[in-house]
Structure formats: C-alpha cells, structure tokens
Automatic annotation (TrEMBL):
GO cellular component, one term: cytoplasm
UniProt: GTP binding residues: L14, A15, G16, K26, D107
Any GO molecular function: molybdenum cofactor guanylyltransferase activity
Binding residues for Mg(2+): D107
UniProt note: domains: The N-terminal domain determines nucleotide recognition and specific binding, while the C-terminal domain determines the specific binding to the target protein.
Protein name, entry field: Probable molybdenum cofactor guanylyltransferase
Keyword field contains S-adenosyl-L-methionine: no
Domain MobA-like NTP transferase: 12-171
Major localisation: cytoplasm
Subcellular location: Cytoplasm
C-alpha cells in the first residue's frame, strides 16, 4: 500500500467522552477484533505523520497498539467533569504545529482512508478565509470528521472562554468550506449498543 502523508497536516482524535449512551468506554469497544480507538488511530496514521489522541485518561489506553500516536493529556477542573468535545479540541489544537488538523471522533468505525486522503489532497485549494472544511448534512456541520486551520485557535479560545460549548454555534460564526461525502456510511457514528449491533 502506498502511504500518502500530508506534511502540513496532523490528526487529533478525541477520546474523552462520557460514553453514557453506550454504557462503557466506546474507545475500548472491539469492532472487527480491534478496539475502536486503535482503528481510528490506524486510519489517521495512514493520512498524517503526526497523530494525537486528546484524552483526560491516557493511562486507560496505554495497552492499545497505537504506533506513531502520542497522547495529549486534557486538563479538567475536576476528574469527573466533562466539558465536551469543543474544549477537548481547543486543548489539542493548542499543541499542534501544522497548518491543518484532521479532527476525528473515536467512535467512527467506518472511516475510509482513501476518502480522507482525497480530502487532504485538496486542502491547498480551500479559500483563505475558511477556518475549516467539513461535511454539511441536514442537521448542520459534521464537526468530528473534518479539517481545521490551526490559525482558528484564537477565535476558538475566545468562544470557549465566553462559555461556548457548541461546535455548531461556533462554526456558524465563521466561513467554512463544504466537503463532499462520497459515501454517507463513512460517518456512521457508534453511540449505543444498538449501533454496535448494526456493525456485527
Ligand atoms: N477529549 C475529549 N473528547 C470528548 C469529550 N466529550 C466528547 N468527546 C469525544 O467526542 C466524540 C463524540 O462524542 P459523543 O459521541 O457525542 O459523546 P460521548 O460523550 O462520547 O458519549 P455520550 O455520553 O453517549 O454522549 C467522541 O470521540 C468522544 O470521545 C471531552 O470532553 N474531551
Ligand atoms: Mg458520537
């Protein structure tokens, strides 16, 4: 397999959610014999040189096989307080050195490397004013499988520091370039035991 890495792109994978609908940590659930987080990390490392997992509990994932992946330990006010994916993303983005970041949730079992690589190869043609390039669906943006410019960090921190927690609200304040999704099942989100059963 030829590996096409984009030098100006890193990946951030969010793995700090409550998994309350699943009832157990989704990142560790096995799909096709591989824990979900490991699967998503392996897809990400087929697309970018640097892969970072943003989580408040890196020790929980130390036993996973995550070659070339590094942890970014997320800080929280208290161990049990979850502040949501937008704050996790902000903390991760602050550590990244590349112009672009591929942001991924850890609960996407049907990601397709060739689609992500195709999108990554088009980043040069995204208009300068766009802070991100994302898929748009009937409910709004798909924030957890798409590309963001590192330069949007100050705007993101302003929003978060004013108490903002919603990706949709934040994204609606800025120009975003639309990504076209060739296969909608690629964004299948595994949130519940019923979702998991659909995969088997
Ligand atoms: N690092 C980090 N990731 C988060 C946080 N909240 C959610 N995520 C991640 O964001 C992605 C989407 O999360 P959801 O599926 O919406 O929610 P969840 O909190 O994991 O699960 P539910 O409790 O069932 O809503 C997953 O990869 C989560 O691990 C957070 O506070 N920090
Ligand atoms: Mg989800």
């Amino acid at each position: 397999m030829s590996i096409k890495h984009n030098q100006s792109l890193s990946s951030l994978i969010l793995a700090g959610g409550k998994s309350s609908r699943m009832g157990e940590d989704k990142a560790l659930i096995s799909v096709g014999g591989m824990p979900l987080l490991q699967l998503v990390c392996s897809v990400a490392s087929s697309c970018t040189d640097n892969v970072y997992v943003v989580t408040p509990w890196p020790e929980r994932y130390e036993q996973l096989v995550l070659p070339r992946c590094q942890f970014i330990r997320e800080l929280r006010l208290s161990p049990s307080s979850s502040h949501g994916p937008l704050v996790g993303f902000a903390q991760g983005l602050a550590q990244v050195q590349t112009d672009w970041v591929l942001l991924l949730a850890c609960d996407l079992p049907r990601l397709r490397v060739e689609v992500l690589q195709g999108w990554a190869s088009e980043l040069n043609s995204v208009p300068d004013e766009a802070i991100a390039t994302l898929v748009h669906n009937t409910k709004g943006w798909e924030p957890l499988c798409g590309f963001y410019r590192r330069r949007c960090l100050p705007q993101l921190l302003d929003f978060v520091n004013q108490g903002g927690r919603s990706f949709q609200q934040w994204l609606n304040q800025h120009p975003i370039q639309v990504l076209s999704l060739p296969a909608s099942e690629m964004l299948f989100n595994c949130n519940t035991p019923e979702d998991l059963a659909l995969l088997k």
